[in-house]
Write a structure and sequence with these properties.
The structure is a single chain. This protein is of the alpha+beta class and 492 residues long. Among the domains are: 19-80 and 286-361, no CATH class; 132-196, no CATH class; 208-276; 417-484, Orthogonal Bundle (Arc Repressor Mutant, subunit A), CATH 1.10.10. It has 22 helices and eight strands. It has helices at residues 17-26, 30-43, 54-59, 70-83, 96-105, 132-141, 147-158, 185-196, 208-215, 222-234, 236-240, 244-251, 255-266, 313-321, 328-361, 363-368, 378-385, 389-396, 428-440, 450-459, 466-475, 481-484, and strands spanning 47-49, 288-293, 296-301, 309-311, 400-403, 406-409, 417-419, 425-427. The strands form three sheets. It has a four-stranded mixed β-sheet with strand order 3-2-5-6. Strands 1-4 form a two-stranded antiparallel ribbon. It has a two-stranded antiparallel sheet with strand order 7-8. Helix 20 packs across helix 21. The radius of gyration is 32 Å and the shape is extended.
């Protein structure tokens, strides 16, 4: 073997760090993008939030937020400025009524405050949002229990999860030495039953079956209660599968009685702790708002997602005056600040361009609904906007559009083309709309199977395989035919 040295010339495309950062900002959702922008503001001394009031914005000499996406973005930014409340100057002689009004407008999450005269303010009477454990502790505190029993019951309460279940064994609730003498199994079982007797019903259960059993006394009819007890204790899998016929055979009851018992069980709450959950729901914030302007559907940026950030001109001018080789790190921060503003601008320009291209292709959807959705691919939007398909894919990921028909992800408007018997093309979204309408209009006692839906679509000239119907039905989160079937109830 002989070693040799060879020189090659080869061209290869690579992404610069600046371009990689721009791509990462582009594919972020609105929530992640705002969080990333706040982190940049916290680490870069040249970036700051624009907290200037509307009146000052019009007369300020310093340049404002350098985030503009053409006339549409300017219009959205002006809408954001107009939407902010005007700041009124306080009067010299403030009356007590104005003080109460100001107290109402203050942040209610702060600690309770009293007025100057020592009286409670209006916010002191607002009910605080509690949780599951405080709710149970309040019930235990009013019970005439010995100190030892109260400690054991409170230990059970503190061991519950957010669903209200006791997931750990009873003998592990207390650490060694907390109670002397140590509680035995009977004491722990009594404490568990005492907590299970509290509201809400079904709390402190160790399984789904036990949770439902604790709530069965709420069923008023004794016969239905007995049948529900038999179903929960021995045939919970049949209940989940909605196998009413098999349950009727196993329990020797008619199908109407079994169906009534199953319906009574479904009214129970398998997660009783959820109603006391203090977490707030996370809502989708649309990036684009679609409106009809002069007979044409137009995309406009949502003012709520527009960042109010700018370069601190005071710091930038001071740095330019005293710039030297020792301030290389500050120079890097200033360059990154300018890149950030350009990337933010490019992000909104790209989102608005892609959204408008989608609207131009799918304008029938806004007129007639999902049935009028046309087949659309990333390549078509890329060709119309002059972007690469990967860029369009990043733009449509985790970006949402608010329309008169609801809020949809941008990817919702893309679907592959399917050919009908007549040669016309249709989209999968239209097929899903048809399937939803068929299932909505079906008879409860005779629901449509996936094969029947496929045959009904074929009669309309839409050739769709049965497995495709199943896939679309599952995407719509619709139960299969047996779980949708409602058995008729016979007269007593």
């Amino acid at each position: 073997m002989q070693s040799s040295l060879r020189l090659e010339r080869r061209q290869q495309q690579t992404l610069s760090p600046r371009l990689q950062h721009a791509v990462r900002l582009l594919q972020m959702s609105s929530v992640d993008f705002v969080q990333e922008l706040h982190e940049m503001i916290g680490t870069n001394p040249f970036l700051e939030t624009d907290d200037t009031e509307p009146d000052e914005i019009e007369t300020a000499a310093a340049p404002q937020v350098a985030v503009a996406a053409g006339s549409q973005l300017d219009e959205a930014a002006s809408m954001q400025i107009d939407a902010e409340p005007a700041v009124t100057q306080p009067r010299e002689n403030t009356e007590p009524v104005d003080e109460e009004r100001d107290a109402w407008m203050e942040d209610g999450s702060a600690s309770s405050r009293r007025a100057d005269d020592g009286q409670f303010g209006a916010l002191d009477f607002v009910a605080a949002r509690g949780g599951l454990r405080p709710h149970l502790h309040e019930q235990l505190d009013v019970l005439p229990l010995p100190a030892r029993d109260l400690v054991l019951a409170k230990a059970v309460v503190e061991s519950l999860d957010d669903d209200g279940y006791l997931r750990q064994p009873l003998d592990g609730l207390l650490q060694d030495g907390e109670l002397d003498p140590a509680p035995d199994a009977e004491e722990l079982a009594i404490a568990l039953r005492r907590v299970q007797s509290l509201e809400p019903a079904g709390i402190a259960a160790r399984s789904v079956a036990e949770c439902l059993l604790l709530q069965l006394p709420r069923i008023p009819c004794p016969e239905l209660r007995a049948t529900a007890h038999a179903i929960v204790t021995g045939h919970l899998d049949r209940l989940a599968a909605r196998d009413v016929q098999r349950l009727a055979q196993l329990l020797d009851k008619d199908t109407a009685h079994i169906e009534a018992a199953c319906e009574s069980i479904r009214r129970l709450d398998p997660r009783p702790g959820w109603r006391f959950d203090g977490t707030h729901a996370q809502y989708v914030v649309p990036d684009v708002v679609v409106r009809r302007v002069r007979g044409r559907w137009t995309a406009m940026l949502n003012p709520a997602v527009l960042p109010r950030v700018r370069i601190n001109q005071v710091y930038a001018e001071l740095f330019q005056r005293h710039r030297c080789s020792q301030n290389a790190e500050l120079a890097t921060h200033l360059q990154e600040a300018r890149w950030t503003l350009r990337n933010v601008e490019q992000r909104f320009v790209t989102i608005l361009s892609v959204a408008q291209a989608i609207i131009d292709r799918q304008w029938r959807f806004f007129e007639l609904g999902p049935m009028a959705m046309k087949p659309l691919g990333l390549k078509e939007i890329a060709g119309e906007t002059g972007m690469h398909e990967s860029t369009v894919s990043r733009v449509t990921n985790n970006k949402y559009m608010a329309t008169p028909l609801g809020v949809f992800e941008l990817k919702y408007f893309f679907s592959r083309a399917m050919t009908s018997v007549s040669g016309n093309t249709y989209s999968g979204t239209a097929i899903r709309g048809l399937i939803r309408d068929m299932i909505r209009d079906e008879r409860p006692h005779a629901p449509l199977s996936d094969a029947q839906i496929a045959r009904l679509l074929a009669r309309q000239g839409l050739v769709v395989a049965r497995r495709t119907v199943t896939k679309y039905r599952q995407a719509l989160r619709i139960d299969p035919v047996e779980r949708r079937r409602v058995h008729p109830r016979t007269a007593a």
